[in-house]
Amino acid sequence: MCLAVPMKVVELNLPLAVVEVEGIRREIRADFLPDLALGEYVLVHAGVAIERVDPDEAEETLRLMEQLSNEIR
């Protein structure tokens, strides 16, 4: 099974981007999204932005992931 995590774009130097979630930043490839903009949310899988995500959907997914994480602990 694969997992893609929604992350917010905070820096751009295409084809690279820096994304962030909960204070964690990662440099990723953004080749599949050449017109990516700062502030957008993307699904990140294996260090690659694979799709744009609606901000409300991204926030809800992150909230559910946090809730699941808390329940597992």
Q: Concise description?
A:
The chain is α+β, with helices and mostly antiparallel strands. Helices cover 25% and strands 44% of the residues. Strands 3-2-1-4-5 form a 5-stranded antiparallel β-sheet, with helices on one face.
Number of strands: 5
Q: What's the architecture, going by CATH?
A: Roll
Number of domains: 1
- Termini separation (Å)? 22 Å
Q: What is the averaged pLDDT score? A: 95
CATH topology: SH3 type barrels
Counting copies of identical and different chains, the oligomeric state is single chain
Structural class: alpha+beta
Report low-confidence residues grouped into runs of 5 or more.
none
Rg (C-alpha, Å):
12 Å
Order of helices and strands: EEEEEH
Percentage of residues in DSSP E strands: 35-45%
For the sheet with most strands, the description reads:
5 strands, antiparallel
Question: Order of strands across the widest beta sheet?
Answer: 3-2-1-4-5
* CATH class descriptor: Mainly Beta
Overall spatial form: elongated
Task: Explain the overall architecture.
This protein is an alpha+beta fold. It has a single domain, classed as SH3 type barrels (Roll), CATH 2.30.30.140. The chain is 25% helix and 44% strand. The protein contains one helix and five strands; from the N terminus they run E-E-E-E-E-H. It has one helix at 55-72; strands at 5-13, 16-21, 24-29, 41-45, 48-53. Strands 3-2-1-4-5 form a five-stranded antiparallel sheet, with helices on one face. It is elongated. The model has no long low-confidence stretch (mean pLDDT 95).
